[in-house]
Design goal:
Layout lengths: L1 E6 L1 H8 L14 H6 L2 E9 L6 H20 L5 E3 L3 H9 L3 E8 L8 H9 L2 E5 L23 H13 L2 E3 L5 H10 L5 E2 L16 H9 L3 E4 L3 H4 L13 H15 L4 E3 L21 H9 L4 H22 L2
Parallel strand pairs: 1-2, 2-4, 3-4, 4-5, 5-6, 7-8, 8-9
The structure holds zinc ion.
């Protein structure tokens, strides 16, 4: 039922050569945990850290892509690499988990639209334009000095992604890059793992104006479970941690600004390096968020939208816009 728009599992797969087919105590995401938590699919991010540049970044992304394919090949009756919303529905009917691919940080494509198309052909459905460093495509929320938003090449990337039907992901992008994309993109845009700045002041969270614009353009925001993005009160040294309540506060706020059809879940599991939210140690617990939504009066159809339907619908619209 749940489709998570952002987990960092490929980085873990290459770092620990972990078997994702078994329930590992130190993994936040594996296939048994997804099944236990009624998570029917997740976007596996091919994440390149800002310090890896150029051809090394391309190589890193290909290694992670290969690890994601290997993980599915080793568990053929459990999960499959998934290229489209239609394939996700087929997988569900066959009892298979959907492993979607996203690229986090456009560094691996360098300044090459043909590399972008190559990754798309291999199954990469979204590109998070930046991570914590400005790159050839756009400025990051963590720096934001190189281009003043989207670069000239970044505008070509946006046009190419529109033509391919790829999702343009602006989590981590600078505010200026976000607004440039809102203006430049012919299709809706997404923020696969972002929270609300009105509730937690982190620079990489979305302002109310950004949430509104994202909804008006028909886009999607996946609420992130990383404690630093959920609450300004979070401090590793102190015992209090945000939990399900704070996550659903962010969902409520995003629903108010962007609309009920434009919000989902992008947990960042396997990328949460410090403490996970209280009571949400791994992806098997994500459904507790849906229980809290029900307690707050969301109808079952609304809960299902946020659980994953919205993401698939927005993706379908982005593909339709490309035709
Ligand atoms: Zn991220």
């Amino acid at each position: 039922m749940i489709i998570d728009s952002h987990v960092d599992t490929p980085s873990q797969l290459i770092r620990y050569s972990r078997n994702i087919g078994v329930d590992s105590p130190d993994a936040q995401v594996d296939f048994p945990k997804m099944k236990a938590g009624e998570v029917s699919g997740a976007f596996f991010a091919l994440y390149t850290p800002p310090e890896i540049k150029g051809a090394d970044a391309t190589r890193r992304a290909l290694e992670m892509l290969s690890a994601a394919y290997d993980a599915c090949d080793e568990n053929p009756n459990v999960a499959a690499i998934t290229f489209s919303p239609e394939e996700a529905a087929e997988n569900r009917a066959q009892g298979l988990l959907s492993v979607f691919l996203g690229m986090e940080n456009a560094e691996p494509i360098g300044e090459s639209r043909s590399l972008l198309r190559t990754f798309y052909r291999l199954g990469v459905s979204y590109v998070t334009l930046t991570h914590n460093a400005d790159n050839a495509v756009a400025d990051s929320a963590a720096e934001g000095t190189r281009w003043g938003g989207l670069s000239p090449f970044g505008r070509e990337v946006v046009a190419e992604m529109n033509a391919l039907g790829m999702m343009i992901d602006l989590s981590h992008a600078s505010d200026k890059a976000f607004w440039d994309c809102i203006e430049a993109s012919q299709a809706p845009i997404v923020a696969t793992h972002s929270c609300c700045r009105a509730l937690c002041g982190h620079r990489r969270n979305l302002s109310d104006d950004m949430l509104k614009a994202l909804g008006e353009k028909g886009g999607y925001v996946g609420i992130n479970f990383y404690p630093y993005f959920l609450s300004d009160r979070f401090d590793q040294a102190k015992p209090w941690r945000p939990g399900v309540k704070e996550i659903v506060d962010h969902i409520d706020h995003a629903v108010q600004l962007a609309g009920i059809d434009h919000v989902g879940i992008g947990s960042d599991f396997d990328g949460i390096e410090d403490l996970t939210p209280e009571g949400l140690e791994n992806i098997s617990k994500s459904r507790l968020v849906l229980d809290e939504m029900r307690r707050r009066g969301y109808s079952e159809p609304e809960v299902l939208k946020v659980a994953g339907q919205n993401l698939l619908e927005v993706w379908k619209t982005i593909i339709t816009c490309s035709k």
